[in-house]
């Protein structure tokens, strides 16, 4: 019988995240993958600005805190500093990755930078108290869209995986979620692949994790997980959006 | 001694950076410094280094942040509008105590301005440029040889004090060609960087590179400690050149190309019997307060010659504690004062003090 243990790559301290937030699950999955691949000693993680800004206190590997949205550029520098010996991942939210840092995201993908990007999409700015995100759904009520996101005024939510999949550059793009056990297991598989790709030198691998924010969505944790299923996933369908190596294999 | 070769100032910076052990360069095209990127693009791939044309100045400075975090010598270069964009990243470098070199080959501003030489980023450079309390070490070359030497110095000081160094040149310095010796440059190798994020190798606690500190008492302490370090820099690393200052009634303050122009004017004025000298700050931060203070003991007037609307003049006034008048002799917007303009300013001031 398997006994629950904390992954070595995760430091044994209380996380600061709100009850029901899925950051904790994704942190754990990333740490489990780092353990299983035996790469903790060569891994450097880049924390974003947002709720996971203090991720550097949670991961046992070397950590860097980047300016808002700049994690892929910082990761590019760290990776290029020693490509053979550095495994580099960024951990970013939707405001960080898809709003202020969109240029860095797109160009790191276009360059097929050999890094791993964990993208938490919970359709809201959590840390600043629940403002509209680039991924907030049409009609979603937030502090800065108090009457619901109106596409006439603020356009439509950005589908990051779909958008990046049009680029020739990136190696691997997959959208997963963590709202139930089956999906958590799939998410881990995707995260592991995203790290394995980097080890194999394949290039830019991004896993978008559709996540919950009960606090700023104004829901209980359970309601939030249900809202992922009922409202988020119809707009953000799960699946692999690009897997160049698999596509090449198929073509052969 | 190795032969001197004829090089543009921009190329000298690039060649000196590589000589200093900088194998990582990130930049974005902007006139008048693009030769630096072109040189790096040509050489870096052949020596196992990184040249990367970033998607923006913002990305470039953050790539610098990444390499600096990993403990390697790294640089970026740009010109005025581009350096404004790098301001965010420079502030983060300061907040995380990361060593790096930023080159600014200045052009006229504000806004998109022009592409001709300027010194109008003096305030931006010497006061930090981005948000928060911090300084960069700012080095102002006045020859192509100095472009090379101060580039090396910039890396060394950055590593020694864990600060960002800036080489603050201008379009003239970047574009002019002079004989320069790169092979003879002496370089202090980078020190050990036990704080760098290079992977724990499962042999030590994890390193964190970070500028976030949410407890005000702790953030204050970090700022105090950083300024203690700045004080040591001020005491030990201030550099300047004096020219005919000992007996001078009038002392000119000028750096970079303005100092070269002023030197000619000093010689011409001396021929006319006017006792004039020149102090050329080489580090703009830390500013050369001591020679100015000393000169104010005998000088009756100062003239600040600048390619801007009068920025260094404030530091001169502070350094001499307003003991005597300081006149501005300037051109702006990409124009350069000629020796005659400076000579006329000297004559005018001389008339006033007689």
Can you give me a brief rundown of this structure?
By secondary structure, chain A is α/β, with parallel strands linked by helices.
Structure description:
- By secondary structure, chain A is α/β, with parallel strands linked by helices.
- Chain A has ten helices and seven strands.
- Chain A has a single domain (23-251), classed as Rossmann fold.
- In chain A, 39% of the residues lie in helices and 15% in strands.
- Chain A has a seven-stranded mixed sheet with strand order 2-1-3-4-6-5-7, sandwiched between helices.
- In chain A, helix 7 (181-199) links the parallel strand 5 (172-177) and strand 6.
- In chain A, helix 1 (23-37) crosses helix 7 (181-199) and helix 3 (94-100) crosses helix 4.
- Chain B is α/β, with parallel strands linked by helices.
- Chain B folds into two domains: 5-237, Rossmann fold; 241-353, Rossmann fold (3-Layer(aba) Sandwich).
- Helix content of chain B is 41%, strand content 19%.
- In chain B, the strands form three sheets. Chain B has a seven-stranded mixed sheet, sandwiched between helices.
- In chain B, helix 1 packs across helix 2 (34-43) and helix 3 (57-69) runs parallel beside helix 4.
- Chain B is globular, with a radius of gyration of 21 Å.
- The model of chain B has no long low-confidence stretch (mean pLDDT 97).
Key traits:
heterodimer; A: alpha/beta; Rossmann fold; 7-stranded mixed beta sheet; 7 strands; B: about 350 residues; alpha/beta; 5-stranded mixed beta sheet; 15 strands
What's the arrangement of secondary structure elements?
The complex is a heterodimer of chains A (252) and B (354).
Chain A: H1 23-37, E1 43-47, E2 62-65, H2 71-81, E3 87-93, H3 94-100, H4 102-110, E4 116-121, H5 151-154, H6 160-165, E5 172-177, H7 181-199, E6 205-210, H8 214-217, H9 221-235, E7 239-243, H10 244-251
Parallel strand pairs in A: 1-2, 1-3, 3-4, 4-6, 5-6
Antiparallel strand pairs in A: 5-7
Helix pairs in contact in A: 1-7, 3-4
Chain B: E1 5-8, H1 9-19, E2 24-27, H2 34-43, E3 50-53, H3 57-69, E4 74-78, H4 80-95, E5 100-106, H5 122-126, E6 137-139, H6 144-161, E7 164-170, H7 171-175, E8 177-180, E9 208-209, H8 216-237, E10 240-243, E11 250-253, H9 257-271, E12 276-281, E13 283-285, H10 289-295, E14 301-306, H11 312-319, E15 326-330, H12 339-353
Parallel strand pairs in B: 2-3, 2-4, 4-5, 5-7, 6-7, 11-12, 11-14, 14-15
Antiparallel strand pairs in B: 1-8, 6-13, 10-12
Helix pairs in contact in B: 1-2, 1-6, 3-4, 9-12, 10-11
